[in-house]
# Entry
Amino acid sequence: DRDAAMLRLERVASATPRRSLAEATRDVLALLADTVGESPSVYVFTDLSRASFDDVSLDALASSLEKLPKAKIHFVDVGVSQPRNRGLAALELSSERPSAGEPLTIRTGVYGTAASDAPASVEVWLGERGGEPAKRADKPASDTLEFTLAGLDAGVHQGFVRLLSTDPLPVDNTRFFTVEVVEPPRLLLVESEPGGAIFVSEALASSALNGIVAPRFICETVMVDRLRVDEINDFDAVMLLDPPPLAERTWRALAEFSQSGGGVAVCLGSKSVGKLAEMNSPAAQLVLPGKLKWTSRTPRYLQPRSYEHPILRELADVAGETPWPLFPVFQAWQFDSLDSAASIVSYFADGAPAIVEQTQGNGRLVVLTTPLSDRATADAWNLLPTNPEPWPFLALVNGLADYLVGTATHPLNYTAGQSVVLPLPRRSDLSSYILAPPEGEALVQTLDPTARDIVLSVTSEVGNYRVTSGGTQSQFERGFSTNVDDAAGRLDRADFSDIASRLGRDRVTRAASRDDISSTIDLAATGRELFPWIITSVALLLACEQVLANRFYAASPRGTGVGGRGVMIDK
# Structure
């Protein structure tokens, strides 16, 4: 139905794609994998921008084509020979969650095609705690730009960086951002002897930087025999540094603290030696991920098998260069068995668990089988904090603290179309929330009472979103931003000959006009109307038959014949 098709075309609205052009093409080829004995054709409408046909995308397409030897891709070129556009590169934020008093640095740059060289400028606009945005800075456009915003109060701040330009593609002229200025999380460091928390405390909030750099954490130290369970809830996380067996009431308080969303780390060490029964008591097992077996004196060192876990993520970029053998571990606890809910974050080189975690309620429990507090003495269990260049220790401790307080889990800035996850606060009683999109009316959404996160999947609209709610125990205010992919406005054209050489010249074609498209249609797949050809052939056949039939009969003499027909007599 032509009218219905035209109506659907008129209703098509532009939206930010969730997948790249190469990903969408690979998905289509995968759907055609079952077309046995056929020669499938895929038509891809594209502007042939270089950003859509980088090496990774071409390698993936070539791999998909290898699985379909008879398939062909027809690229319908809808671009222009000399595109003109100028846009902003994706924003780089110094931190999505800067501490109060810490300045926010925004880095970006202006890119453009050769045909876009008109003067332009870039502005930064920032809203204060949900208010209307105001211009905070501006600079002339250049390849690299850096803006610094200071004096941000605690809370959610949203804004945008805007390129003032007259190019015909405005979608990449504005980049939105969200940051959440937070008060530094409070960590309670529980030490078993005076000075036992010094290494961890200095790693998280160095005293040498007081008054120079805003601290990322506020650390308070207490002796284990002075730990008051009624004060635990005043902190975001608790780290037990080489603890002895605790009172049953304390173990239970720590378990309840974790259930309600707090983070608890237990760094086992020498203070538990000889007290296996107490450490394996029912109360202690509410916090520990399994029953302890013994201490191993086999020399070893940390050897993570993966750096994907948030605790180790700060070391991911230098995973192959981290000198773990220079941080030997002389003693470590071993478990008899681990609970089914426990998982191993990192191993030692001999395969024994080094860091074990388990999720309990809304919080996190992490156990290290060797301490982080030993000085470099003859009876030290390890040299993790005392190596002359302890940068792996600093990264490990900061990653552990970030994970415990939950600051390194969910981003605030996304590519449009991605699913957004917003963690709910501890001890939340929220039953609904209000979602304010960039444009249009705010929406009221219900919330599952057992939910730990708000998950949003309808984020195709570019801009700043805000989520608010309230409850008797906590107020909830979050925000996030979505932007177009960085490649959306990079319109420099790719050379089709390079694409053809990578994918196979007999596997791809380029169509730039209606006639080119028509010539690429596979007649074997689409068919053609054959009736005119058949009826013409039949008419010709009848005409030939008539001519041939009369060729072998002579006309009879006039007035002669039988029954009106001429007769040939052979004498």
